[in-house]
Amino acid sequence: MKTLKDVISLKFKTSESEGVIFHGEGQQGDYITLELKKAKLVLNLNLGSNQLGSIYGHTSVMTGSLLDDHHWHSVIIERHGRNINLTLDRHMQHFRTNGEFDYLDLDYEITFGGMPFSGKPSSNSRKNFKGCMESINYNGNNITDLAKRKKLEPSSVGNLSFSCVEPHTVPVFFNATSYLEVPGRPSQDLFSVSFLFRTWNPSGLLVFSNFADDLGNVEIDINDGKVSVHINVTLVKKNRIDISS
């Protein structure tokens, strides 16, 4: 396909911070890739470069953050020549691609949810998308409907299911006055705790526990946006250990 205009839209939700949402490339060096990187949305686009190096077409635009929250996010890419509108959850960003070419020349298949292994260094370092997509529309073609009715030719489809599995994790919301108290484990030498958290507040107490027999305590908190671990041991001269990250 050689196109002057493109309209690509879809919705996705995921709890993964990395993954290729769709990818297409051509023999002339053109490509378009939409992917998640560090839970941000990145669009890489190249309408063509020349071998002399005087025309460099690679363009990369990043938008959004914390998109691994397992909520639905809507993406629309509208291209007319070198002019691009990238809309994420109704927030539109306009930009122009680098280079001098207006047409997107894609000779190979377009893949959704990942990219084929091409032997290039860029292909094997990228993760496939893990999550749910719906309402995939590529230049007027309803891709999800065609995939479900097995009307895509040629197609190489892995383990697809036409339903969205909810994650097993159960989040807990704290309102700054609430807390969760759980029983400790006496006569154990090991103290181990792990959790995921998300907050807009720069400071707050995350975990606190007293050791048995008045041996001290451990405290994990956020202070000015940094996570700090404080371990107090009453029986040792240097009785306080502070770790910050």
From TrEMBL:
Q: Which positions carry the signal peptide feature in this UniProt record? A: none
Every Laminin G domain range: 1-164
SUPFAM superfamilies linked to this entry: Concanavalin A-like lectins/glucanases
InterPro entries registered for this protein in UniProt: ConA-like_dom_sf, Laminin_G, Neurexin-related_CASP
One Pfam family recorded for the sequence: Laminin_G_2
What name appears for this protein in its UniProt entry?
CNTP2 protein
Question: Which species?
Answer: Chionis minor
Q: Which gene encodes it?
A: Cntnap2
